[in-house]
Amino acid sequence: MDELNVQVSLYNRHRNGRYSSYKGTVGKVARNVLHQHFNETVPFKVLHTDVTQVRLADTKWAYVSAITDEASKEVLAFQVSNSPNSKLIMDTLDELTENIPEGIKPIIHSDQGWHYQLNYYTDKLSEKKFIQSMSRKGNCLDNAPIESFFHLLKTECLNGFPQCKDIGEFKEITKNYVDWFNNRRISQKTKVMTPCEYREHALAV
Fold this sequence. Notes:
By secondary structure, the protein is of the alpha/beta class. It contains 6 helices and 5 strands.
């Protein structure tokens, strides 16, 4: 299959395995503030972030960095790159600051990926007065909300487009999915409202 450049036509979780950025302790490891207590109901209080990867039809990888709201499930930041580098992470934080009200000081929970330990990231959180929290080493359940979103992204969105030809097509398809997810997709977890509707409802109470 490699010699003939043949790939399966359905999304395959083994071929598109979960991206792991863990490289040991390379900077500051924050304490786990949440301890798997994912019961926040007020938007902008607890946010989750991570990076995942998806194989494209040209055999290259696309890397997705996202931030979701635990209460509303809303995707507050979504960036795509061909490299899981510092620019991808900082562009995600910059998008987040544009999409949340000023003065908000949420908990931002991540795994212990190397980019979340280094000064450029921790200093930015400190500057914004965001509270950093991290999963235990090698425990994906500690960051289940963002893992759940990535699962939905790959099954609901990418099953229809299993072979995005390149990163440009991937960006367009995922951009449309995030817009649909935030504004049209209802869920029992958000009281049969879309994430944006739930956010407005919860903040109005």
